[in-house]
Write a structure and sequence with these properties.
The complex is a heterodimer of chains A (248) and B (219). Chain A is an alpha+beta fold. Chain A has helices at residues 33-46, 118-125, 148-158, 165-169, 176-187, 190-193, 196-209, 220-224, 232-247; strands at residues 3-9, 18-24, 68-70, 73-74, 96-101, 109-111, 114-115. Chain A folds into two domains: 3-111, Roll (Ubiquitin-like (UB roll)); 118-247, Fumarate Reductase Iron-sulfur Protein, Chain B, domain 2, CATH 1.10.1060. Helix content of chain A is 36%, strand content 12%. In chain A, the strands form two sheets. Chain A has a five-stranded mixed beta sheet with strand order 2-1-5-3-4. In chain A, strands 6-7 form a two-stranded antiparallel sheet. Chain A starts with a strand and ends with a helix. Chain B contains eight helices and no strands. Chain B has a single domain (14-73, 101-218), classed as Up-down Bundle (3 helical TM bundles of succinate and fumarate reductases). Chain B has 219 residues and is mainly α. The chains are: A alpha+beta (248), B mainly alpha (219). The interface between A and B is large, with 51 and 41 residues.
Chain lengths: 248, 219
């Protein structure tokens, strides 16, 4: 396949970026999107042009690092995949592909397609954990009976890889799906209930302080999430937050 | 952070005020509906609503506050949301993952607000003038005539119909969405969505039908 790529180039956080056009030839339909970007970068290096900076790590849909906004959609046109799992067979010969970084005030661009998602880390640090006594007398988690229904839902919520596609795709750049997945995975388990009140209050507070937008229930985040995190988690977080606020 | 200062608290306030306005809309619809079947019943109910102290002094101010709150908070949240993505995408395919109505609540809201302005100009301001400024004598039989008179103009009827189409779109997303905001997403959500679809069609369609009925039968 021969493709035209329009790639966002931005030298650093303060520079004014723009879309640069590149032609790329003989792209195999079996390549992943990131492999295609590798080929582009090799060609750019050969020409003495600065290669396109983009985030990637595991390249198997687990780490959540790859973060491209491809043809107007987070992680491109495919569903339930990250950019590294997107294959070039999803495009046609002669296509023009626009590649931009995830955009949100809380995700400032570092360079080209890489963005700073440490706002997610700070939300997680505000309460996305269970304080465990590690003195040696911790109860075996398997010894605590957990209703299967709740265990499954907690597991589904824990599948969130924190890639930020929910923020990138939401018209309001809201982080509600991410935060709600983190709140839910603990709220549904007995180990997490102990700190549930403080957790939801602190995590939502941090989310608001980071400058994410408000959820308007469009449902776009759920559609674009590579891990299929459900909107049910947002409703659960709303309940948890309301209860925690009233409880004080 | 207090509940109302938080993003979730503000959305909850939007949801609750929206549901309150839905209740008002429903009772308004049934009062209007009586005008199709009985001129005297419509006059009787309108006279009651217009002169009952409980309705006038307590329910009416609550309604005005509810309307003001809903659209002011709507604008506040919209401005806040606009600031959360300063640099916009060059290519953004919103239609790929969310319906148009859910992405354009501010637009449908502005159309409804504009219609509300026209509606107040048509009915509420003359009513306030009649009762409280000029203090004209009570006339329990004037309401039906005033209603029908407003549907004389074809332009007004077209504006009326268009506004209720946008109201239908606003309700189509807003009604079910308010339950999600209140934390309800479970086995009842499908039923709520089905009710939303029916409600958002039937109530606005009913208002439109009543307007067309009076326009066609009287003029």
């Amino acid at each position: 396949m021969n493709l035209t790529l329009k790639v966002w180039r931005q030298a650093n956080a303060d520079a004014k970026g723009n879309l640069e056009t590149y032609q790329i030839k003989e792209v195999s339909p079996d390549m992943s999107f990131l492999e295609m970007m590798d080929v582009l970068n090799e060609e750019l290096i050969e020409k003495g042009i600065d290669p396109v900076a983009f985030d990637h790590d595991c390249r198997e849909g687990i780490c959540g690092m790859c973060s491209m906004f491809i043809n107007g959609e987070a992680h491109g046109p495919d569903r339930l995949v990250t950019t590294c799992q997107l294959h070039m067979r999803k495009f046609k010969d002669g296509d023009t592909i626009t590649i931009e970084p995830f955009r949100a005030k809380a995700f400032p661009v570092i360079k080209d397609l890489t963005v700073d998602r440490s706002s997610f880390d700070r939300i997680q640090q505000a309460g996305g954990f269970v304080s465990v006594n590690t003195s040696g007398n911790t109860q075996d988690a398997n010894a605590i009976p957990i209703e299967k229904h709740n265990a499954d839902k907690a597991f589904d919520a824990a599948a969130c890889i924190g890639c930020g596609a929910c923020v990138a795709t939401c018209k309001n750049a809201s982080a509600m799906l991410f935060v709600s997945a983190k709140v839910s995975q603990y709220a549904l388990l007995p180990q997490g209930r102990v700190e549930a009140t403080d957790r939801v209050l602190n995590m939502v507070n941090q989310m608001d302080e980071e400058g994410f937008g408000n959820c308007t229930n469009t449902g776009a985040c759920e559609v674009e999430c590579p891990k299929g995190i459900s909107l049910e988690n947002i409703a659960r977080m709303n309940r948890e937050y309301l209860y925690a606020s009233l409880k004080g | 952070m207090t509940l109302i200062a938080s993003s979730i608290g503000r959305k909850l306030a939007m949801a609750l005020s929206g549901l309150f306005l839905v209740v008002f809309l429903t009772q308004h619809f049934f009062i209007n509906l009586t005008s199709v079947f009985s001129e005297s019943l419509f006059n009787e109910i309108s006279h009651f609503m217009g002169n009952n102290p409980l309705v006038q002094m307590i329910l009416q101010p609550i309604l005005i506050l509810g309307v003001l709150f809903h659209f002011t908070m709507g604008f506040v949240l919209e401005l806040q949301n606009a600031k959360s993505r300063v640099v916009k995408y060059k290519s953004y395919k919103g239609s790929a993952n969310a319906p148009w109505v859910s992405r354009n609540m501010i637009l449908s809201g502005i159309v409804i607000l504009s219609f509300l302005g026209l509606h107040l100009y048509d009915f509420w301001f003359p009513e306030m003038n009649y009762k409280y400024i000029e203090s004209l004598p009570l006339d329990p039989d004037r309401y039906f005539g005033e209603l029908v008179h407003k549907f004389e103009s074809q332009v007004r009827v077209i504006l009326y119909v268009l506004s209720f189409v946008f109201l239908a779109l606003h309700l189509y997303h807003g009604f079910a969405s308010s339950f999600q905001t209140m934390g309800l997403n479970n086995k009842y959500s499908k039923a709520i969505k089905s009710f939303t679809v029916a409600f958002s069609f039937l109530i606005p369609a009913g208002f439109i039908a009543i307007a067309l009925f009076h326009h066609i039968t009287t003029f």
